[in-house]
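Key result, reporting period 2: structure in, sequence out.
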């Protein structure tokens, strides 16, 4: 299995604000970012239709884990690229 990594391009992520326009992720507050990606992850997990489902209480654990990643730009970019 081969993995291609491109280092010469910059990934620019955007989020839609309450007015329907896009704002760069860098301008998004940490709390909004955590809420967005917690919801994204829970949504994906629930779509997998596991026999027991996904406990909503798991959202707090996801949010804690994401909070640890937020301050590292590379890890934050990985989350944005994976779950957008």
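The corresponding designed sequence is given below.
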């Amino acid at each position: 299995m081969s993995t291609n990594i491109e280092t010469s391009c910059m990934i620019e992520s955007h989020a839609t604000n309450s007015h329907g326009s896009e704002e760069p992720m860098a301008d998004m507050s940490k709390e909004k970012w955590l809420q967005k990606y917690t919801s994204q992850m829970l949504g994906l997990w629930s779509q997998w239709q596991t026999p027991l489902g996904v406990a909503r209480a798991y959202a707090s654990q996801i949010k804690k884990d994401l909070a640890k990643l937020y301050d590292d730009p590379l890890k934050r970019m990985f989350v944005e690229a994976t779950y957008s």
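The longest strand covers residues 14-16. Residues 29-83 form one domain. This case is discussed further under Risks and Mitigation.
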